[in-house]
Amino acid sequence: MKRLKGICPYYPISLNVQGKKCLVVGGGNVALRKVEALMEHGADVEIVSPSFCPELTKLAKEEAIRAIHRNYKPEDLKDAFLAIAATDDVNANEKVAAEARRLGILVNVVDDPNNSDFIAPSYFRRGDIIVAISTSGKSPALARKIRSELEKNFQAEYAQLALVADEVRSELKKQGVTVSNDAWQKVLDLNSLIELLRRGKTQQAKEIMLSKLKILEQQ
User: Is 168 inside a domain boundary?
Assistant: First the structure.
Protein backbone atom coordinates (compact mmCIF):
# COMPACT_ATOMS: atom_id res chain seq x y z
CA MET A 1 0.00 0.00 0.00
CA LYS A 2 1.32 3.44 -0.94
CA ARG A 3 2.05 5.69 2.03
CA LEU A 4 0.21 8.98 1.90
CA LYS A 5 2.10 12.22 2.39
CA GLY A 6 1.66 13.87 5.75
CA ILE A 7 0.39 10.69 7.41
CA CYS A 8 2.02 9.78 10.74
CA PRO A 9 2.74 6.03 10.72
CA TYR A 10 2.49 5.64 14.49
CA TYR A 11 -0.87 4.37 15.74
CA PRO A 12 -1.29 5.29 19.43
CA ILE A 13 -1.87 2.12 21.43
CA SER A 14 -1.49 0.82 24.99
CA LEU A 15 0.06 -2.65 25.19
CA ASN A 16 -0.65 -5.07 28.01
CA VAL A 17 2.81 -6.37 28.98
CA GLN A 18 1.89 -7.73 32.40
CA GLY A 19 3.48 -11.14 32.91
CA LYS A 20 4.86 -11.22 29.38
CA LYS A 21 8.52 -11.72 28.51
CA CYS A 22 10.08 -8.46 27.34
CA LEU A 23 13.70 -8.69 26.22
CA VAL A 24 16.05 -5.72 26.61
CA VAL A 25 19.42 -6.04 24.89
CA GLY A 26 21.93 -3.70 26.53
CA GLY A 27 23.22 -2.96 29.99
CA GLY A 28 23.68 0.81 30.27
CA ASN A 29 21.60 3.71 31.48
CA VAL A 30 19.37 3.72 28.40
CA ALA A 31 18.59 0.05 28.95
CA LEU A 32 17.91 0.83 32.60
CA ARG A 33 15.24 3.39 31.70
CA LYS A 34 13.55 0.88 29.40
CA VAL A 35 13.68 -1.82 32.07
CA GLU A 36 12.21 0.45 34.74
CA ALA A 37 9.31 1.43 32.47
CA LEU A 38 8.56 -2.22 31.65
CA MET A 39 8.75 -3.21 35.32
CA GLU A 40 6.32 -0.44 36.23
CA HIS A 41 3.73 -2.19 34.08
CA GLY A 42 4.36 -5.70 35.36
CA ALA A 43 6.43 -7.09 32.50
CA ASP A 44 8.58 -10.20 32.89
CA VAL A 45 11.89 -8.53 32.02
CA GLU A 46 14.99 -10.26 30.73
CA ILE A 47 18.19 -8.37 29.91
CA VAL A 48 21.20 -9.50 27.91
CA SER A 49 24.60 -7.80 27.93
CA PRO A 50 28.26 -8.60 28.68
CA SER A 51 28.12 -5.96 31.45
CA PHE A 52 25.48 -4.05 33.38
CA CYS A 53 25.29 -0.70 35.11
CA PRO A 54 25.10 -0.86 38.95
CA GLU A 55 21.33 -0.28 39.01
CA LEU A 56 20.63 -3.18 36.66
CA THR A 57 23.02 -5.40 38.62
CA LYS A 58 21.09 -4.56 41.79
CA LEU A 59 17.74 -5.40 40.16
CA ALA A 60 19.16 -8.73 38.99
CA LYS A 61 20.48 -9.59 42.46
CA GLU A 62 17.04 -8.79 43.89
CA GLU A 63 15.58 -11.14 41.23
CA ALA A 64 13.34 -8.37 39.96
CA ILE A 65 14.66 -9.16 36.47
CA ARG A 66 16.61 -11.94 34.79
CA ALA A 67 20.11 -10.97 33.65
CA ILE A 68 22.20 -12.91 31.12
CA HIS A 69 25.88 -11.91 31.19
CA ARG A 70 27.00 -12.38 27.59
CA ASN A 71 26.52 -11.02 24.11
CA TYR A 72 23.06 -11.30 22.59
CA LYS A 73 22.10 -14.51 20.77
CA PRO A 74 19.06 -15.05 18.51
CA GLU A 75 17.68 -17.67 20.91
CA ASP A 76 17.22 -14.93 23.51
CA LEU A 77 14.14 -13.89 21.57
CA LYS A 78 12.36 -17.19 22.27
CA ASP A 79 8.86 -16.57 23.71
CA ALA A 80 9.43 -12.80 23.81
CA PHE A 81 6.38 -10.55 23.45
CA LEU A 82 8.52 -7.58 22.52
CA ALA A 83 12.19 -6.66 22.31
CA ILE A 84 14.16 -3.48 22.85
CA ALA A 85 17.63 -3.04 21.37
CA ALA A 86 19.44 -0.58 23.63
CA THR A 87 23.14 -1.14 23.05
CA ASP A 88 25.66 1.45 21.84
CA ASP A 89 26.51 -0.79 18.86
CA VAL A 90 24.47 0.11 15.77
CA ASN A 91 25.18 -3.22 14.08
CA ALA A 92 24.14 -5.21 17.14
CA ASN A 93 20.91 -3.23 17.41
CA GLU A 94 20.13 -3.81 13.73
CA LYS A 95 20.74 -7.53 14.18
CA VAL A 96 18.26 -7.70 17.08
CA ALA A 97 15.70 -5.75 15.06
CA ALA A 98 16.03 -7.95 11.97
CA GLU A 99 15.73 -11.20 13.91
CA ALA A 100 12.82 -9.97 16.01
CA ARG A 101 10.96 -8.81 12.91
CA ARG A 102 11.58 -12.15 11.22
CA LEU A 103 9.94 -13.87 14.20
CA GLY A 104 7.02 -11.45 14.28
CA ILE A 105 8.12 -9.90 17.59
CA LEU A 106 7.56 -6.19 18.13
CA VAL A 107 10.89 -4.40 18.38
CA ASN A 108 12.11 -0.96 19.37
CA VAL A 109 15.61 0.27 18.57
CA VAL A 110 16.59 3.22 20.72
CA ASP A 111 17.31 6.42 18.78
CA ASP A 112 16.36 4.69 15.53
CA PRO A 113 12.62 5.08 14.87
CA ASN A 114 13.00 4.08 11.22
CA ASN A 115 14.19 0.64 12.33
CA SER A 116 11.53 0.22 15.02
CA ASP A 117 8.04 -1.27 15.00
CA PHE A 118 7.06 1.04 17.85
CA ILE A 119 8.40 4.01 19.75
CA ALA A 120 7.90 4.68 23.44
CA PRO A 121 6.28 8.02 24.30
CA SER A 122 7.24 10.18 27.24
CA TYR A 123 4.52 9.72 29.83
CA PHE A 124 3.39 10.20 33.39
CA ARG A 125 0.89 8.21 35.36
CA ARG A 126 -1.74 9.03 37.97
CA GLY A 127 -3.49 5.85 39.05
CA ASP A 128 -5.09 4.34 35.97
CA ILE A 129 -4.66 7.53 33.95
CA ILE A 130 -1.65 7.67 31.66
CA VAL A 131 -0.81 10.85 29.77
CA ALA A 132 1.62 10.14 26.94
CA ILE A 133 3.42 12.59 24.65
CA SER A 134 5.13 11.65 21.40
CA THR A 135 6.82 13.64 18.66
CA SER A 136 6.80 10.56 16.39
CA GLY A 137 10.49 10.09 17.13
CA LYS A 138 11.45 13.57 15.91
CA SER A 139 12.50 14.98 19.30
CA PRO A 140 12.33 12.84 22.44
CA ALA A 141 13.71 15.81 24.40
CA LEU A 142 10.75 17.96 23.36
CA ALA A 143 8.33 15.17 24.29
CA ARG A 144 9.88 15.00 27.78
CA LYS A 145 9.67 18.78 28.14
CA ILE A 146 5.98 18.89 27.19
CA ARG A 147 5.26 15.96 29.52
CA SER A 148 7.02 17.78 32.36
CA GLU A 149 4.93 20.91 31.83
CA LEU A 150 1.66 18.96 31.72
CA GLU A 151 2.62 16.94 34.79
CA LYS A 152 3.06 20.07 36.90
CA ASN A 153 -0.59 21.09 36.48
CA PHE A 154 -2.21 17.65 36.40
CA GLN A 155 -4.59 17.32 39.34
CA ALA A 156 -4.30 14.19 41.46
CA GLU A 157 -8.10 13.95 41.70
CA TYR A 158 -8.28 12.88 38.05
CA ALA A 159 -7.14 9.40 39.10
CA GLN A 160 -9.93 9.23 41.67
CA LEU A 161 -12.45 10.48 39.12
CA ALA A 162 -11.46 7.63 36.80
CA LEU A 163 -12.35 5.14 39.54
CA VAL A 164 -15.70 6.83 40.21
CA ALA A 165 -16.53 6.91 36.50
CA ASP A 166 -15.72 3.20 36.27
CA GLU A 167 -18.08 2.48 39.19
CA VAL A 168 -20.84 4.51 37.51
CA ARG A 169 -20.28 2.73 34.21
CA SER A 170 -20.42 -0.70 35.89
CA GLU A 171 -23.59 0.17 37.82
CA LEU A 172 -25.35 1.41 34.71
CA LYS A 173 -24.32 -1.72 32.83
CA LYS A 174 -25.83 -3.90 35.56
CA GLN A 175 -29.07 -1.94 35.25
CA GLY A 176 -29.08 -2.47 31.49
CA VAL A 177 -28.65 1.25 30.80
CA THR A 178 -26.66 2.08 27.67
CA VAL A 179 -24.97 5.47 27.72
CA SER A 180 -23.73 7.26 24.61
CA ASN A 181 -20.35 8.92 24.39
CA ASP A 182 -22.05 12.29 23.93
CA ALA A 183 -23.91 11.83 27.24
CA TRP A 184 -20.67 11.02 29.04
CA GLN A 185 -19.03 14.14 27.63
CA LYS A 186 -21.89 16.30 28.90
CA VAL A 187 -21.85 14.73 32.38
CA LEU A 188 -18.11 14.84 32.90
CA ASP A 189 -18.02 18.42 34.18
CA LEU A 190 -14.43 18.17 35.33
CA ASN A 191 -14.23 21.33 37.43
CA SER A 192 -17.30 20.61 39.55
CA LEU A 193 -16.57 16.89 39.93
CA ILE A 194 -12.94 17.46 40.85
CA GLU A 195 -14.02 20.01 43.46
CA LEU A 196 -16.41 17.49 45.04
CA LEU A 197 -13.69 14.86 45.17
CA ARG A 198 -11.24 17.35 46.66
CA ARG A 199 -13.77 17.98 49.44
CA GLY A 200 -14.16 14.26 50.06
CA LYS A 201 -17.68 14.05 48.59
CA THR A 202 -17.04 11.00 46.43
CA GLN A 203 -20.50 9.49 46.86
CA GLN A 204 -22.17 12.77 45.92
CA ALA A 205 -20.08 12.98 42.75
CA LYS A 206 -21.10 9.43 41.86
CA GLU A 207 -24.80 10.09 42.46
CA ILE A 208 -24.72 13.27 40.36
CA MET A 209 -23.13 11.40 37.45
CA LEU A 210 -25.62 8.54 37.67
CA SER A 211 -28.61 10.85 37.84
CA LYS A 212 -27.54 13.07 34.95
CA LEU A 213 -26.64 10.12 32.71
CA LYS A 214 -30.01 8.47 33.25
CA ILE A 215 -31.82 11.72 32.48
CA LEU A 216 -29.84 12.29 29.30
CA GLU A 217 -30.49 8.79 28.04
CA GLN A 218 -34.23 9.20 28.58
CA GLN A 219 -34.37 12.32 26.44
Answer: yes
pLDDT-derived band at 3 (thresholds 50, 70, 90) equals low
pLDDT (tens digit per residue) in 14-67: 999 999 999 999 999 999 999 999 999 999 999 999 999 999 999 999 999 999
User: Measured on CA atoms in the order 136, 139, 144, 149, is the torsion positive or negative?
Assistant: negative
**pLDDT tens readout for residues 148-161:** 999 998 998 999 99
Residue range 134-182, pLDDT digits in tens: 999 889 899 999 999 999 989 989 999 999 999 999 999 999 888 899 9
Please, which residues bridge with residue 109 across strands? 85
Domains contained in the chain, number: 3
What's the CATH number where 72 sits? 3.40.50.720
Sign of CA dihedral 89, 90, 92, 96: positive
For 131, other C-beta atoms within 10 Å of its C-beta total: 16
